[in-house]
Amino acid sequence: MPRNDERPTSTSTVVSEDQNSDTESSERCDSLTSSSDVDCSRQSFTSDSSSKHNSPSCSPPKTLTLDEVMASARDLSNLSLAHEIVVNRNFHLQPPDLPQNSLEKKVKDMVHKAFWDCLESELNDDPPEYDYAIKLLDEIRDTLLSFLNPGANRLRTQIMEVLDMDLIRQQADNNAVDIQGLVSYIINTMGKFCAPVRDDEIKKLKENSGNLVTLFKEIFRVLDLMKMDMVNFTIQSLRPELQRQSVEYERAKFQSILERTPSALDHTNEWIKSSIEEVTRVMPPSDKSSDSGQSGKPLPGPTLVLNTAYIRLLIWDESKGPLPETLMTDEVRLQEMQRSLQLYQAVASVLLIVYSSIGGVVSGLPTLVERLKKMTAVLLEGMHSNDFNLTEALGNVSAQICCEVNKSLAERNFPALPAELQETLKGQICDVTQENNPIRTLVEGRVHQYFRVVLTSTNSHRTPPPVPPGLGLIQPELMGLGVSFVNLVNFNKKVYGPFYVSILKNLLFIDMQAPTPQNGIVQGPPSSPLESK
Description:
By secondary structure, the chain is mainly α. The protein contains 19 helices and no strands. It has helices spanning about 10-15, 20-30, 65-85, 105-125, 130-145, 155-160, 165-175, 180-195, 200-205, 210-260, 265-280, 285-290, 300-310, 330-360, 365-380, 390-410, 420-430, 440-455, 475-510. Helix 16 packs antiparallel against helix 17 and helix 18 crosses helix 19 (about 475-510). The relative contact order is 0.13.
């Protein structure tokens, strides 16, 4: 809370922050994440001892009571809010904006109109009645007092004296209350407490000499904005402290949910299990046979399994199942990353086709290439939507590319592209929609290769590695996305690492013999579940 002689900064300054927050997020993740994937889980897979927060609850299934469900819902809400405040420095609350034709808005407008009509009717009586006006003044007084710090005794006493409800009621009974004077004092006091962004609103209130009903409406509207400003100021003030305690807080909250709802890790179990199966499937044939005579198959290391699991999040299909429970607080961020990556891959595929078909025309013209890149990204914006016609959009992209290239050729006194070449280029670009398209497959494979390198690099959250050949045209975008992704992954590992350790222990290393490393593949439990990368 700000001092009484200070005004909270405007929430608009919070909203105006751009994506350079990734840099600060990198610094935070650097302090939270050491060279190990999950330092907090420095325990052996073969060890049976663990603290309360180092393993998920193994309680048998039970029927949940309503109180337990509500308590879990509150914990999940608090967990989501705290996580959003910590990882999103642009996070702020906004006044609710109800849909225009919604039932809630209709009921709200109806009730408010009835109240304001009653107020206007009372004030227009002769002599005027002040019952509703006094209720409003009482509510305004409580709101103004809520803006004060506990030690602001002088201002508190002043507000209580000026807005003395008992005195105002006595004055109203004798038709001697000065409503205009009280409203003027309220507006001046609001001007002392409001954020600078609300100065214009206060000025309009001071200039408003219309009827009292309209003035009261505006006062409450501005007070609601000031409440939101105060909440957002408090969020900014609490953010550094939350960042210092975020890992322990989020882990404790999730453990609390898990104790009430033992099935709260079911989707996470399936996520990790399917990743183990995926990694095992692509293991080299030579590694699948055991030379030591042991009957057990060699298994992938836990770090490889988790990295593969995180990579799968970039192509997650929600129609086939929900996200793992441990990543629900990052669902929106993951969706944004998926959509951005999908767009970047499409842009890279189109530009690779352009280079392979007419590379001699565009080579040495970085301005033209950048223009083609931006134009393609604009025309393909929203391609993740179900109602987006990708084939039609790619047809428009190819037409615009041919137009821009011909324009560039004309400026340099060269002939336009042959009609046959333009048709070929259009056909190749439209073929990108096919899943087995070689260009699309190449780009997607190298993108996944890049993110695997990002996850295994020790300093990728500060200095992302260079992109593979063929992706140089989207290098800035891909590197920025890589930093955001590795920050999300590192923080997630730090919070939920102990739960992942327990799941991996159950899936990989129960009843296994001593490890036999083979080319990075382990056959038994390692001494540390998540080795340093």
